[in-house]
């Protein structure tokens, strides 16, 4: 299985521990996590600093994966990342992560599809951007088994639009 370069979009505070599980699957390359301290440092410098961090980290990625937790769709920086990914022609997909167990909070409620808030022409992003909902009792293994396929599909799918 070829390693892929992706950018993860997610709600840091609520979902970082779930996201770390996905990062550890091992099919992705060069996608290190930002520490809570580093993220706070970036945020303290203001919106332009956050935008620059996103742009720098998304620049050479071929796909953006929105890891959808309970509140992800409401996060302004997730919305920015979705819009930027689409504008830049990157593959785009969502994965619901509510069934991955966080050691602190356990599982959470399923969030809404963040792509339903965006459109191009007469189409909603939700109509063309796939969102995967892993098997609840085996979410981690379902993601691990399919992640590479989902990414390849998202990259090919984006070329259609």
Explain this structure to me?
By secondary structure, the protein is an alpha/beta fold. Helix content is 43%, strand content 14%. A 4-stranded parallel beta sheet has the order 1-2-3-6. A two-stranded antiparallel sheet has the order 4-5.
Helix/strand class: alpha/beta
Number of strands: 6
Roughly what fraction of the amino acids lie in strands? 5-15%
Oligomer description: single chain
The N- to C-terminal Cα distance equals: 26 Å
Number of helical runs? 6
Percent helix range: 40-55%
Strand order of the largest sheet: 1-2-3-6
How many domain units?
1
Uncertain segments are none
CATH architecture: 3-Layer(aba) Sandwich
Stated plainly, the CATH topology is called Rossmann fold
Write the layout of secondary structure elements.
Layout: E1 6-9, H1 12-23, H2 36-44, H3 47-58, E2 63-68, H4 76-87, E3 91-96, E4 119-120, E5 123-124, H5 125-128, E6 131-132, H6 139-158
Parallel strand pairs: 1-2, 2-3, 3-6
Antiparallel strand pairs: 4-5
Give a brief outline of the structure.
Helix content is 43%, strand content 14%. The protein is of the alpha/beta class and 161 residues long.
Tags for this model:
globular, 43% helix, Rossmann fold, four-stranded parallel β-sheet, 161 residues, two-stranded antiparallel ribbon, alpha/beta, 6 helices, 6 strands
């Amino acid at each position: 299985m070829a390693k892929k370069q992706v950018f993860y979009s997610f709600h840091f505070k609520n979902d970082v521990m779930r996201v770390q599980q996905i990062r550890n699957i091992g099919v992705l390359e060069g996608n290190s996590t930002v520490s809570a301290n580093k993220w706070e440092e970036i945020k303290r410098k203001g919106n332009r600093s956050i935008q620059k961090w996103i742009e720098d980290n998304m620049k050479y990625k071929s796909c953006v994966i929105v890891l959808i937790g309970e509140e992800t769709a409401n996060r302004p920086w997730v919305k920015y990342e979705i819009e930027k990914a689409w504008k830049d022609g990157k593959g785009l997909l969502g994965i619901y992560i509510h069934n991955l167990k966080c050691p602190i909070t356990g599982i959470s409620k399923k969030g809404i599809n963040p792509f339903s808030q965006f459109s191009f022409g007469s189409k909603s992003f939700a109509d063309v951007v796939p969102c995967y909902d892993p098997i609840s009792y085996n979410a981690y293994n379902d993601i691990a088994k399919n992640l590479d396929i989902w990414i390849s599909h998202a990259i090919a799918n984006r070329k259609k639009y």
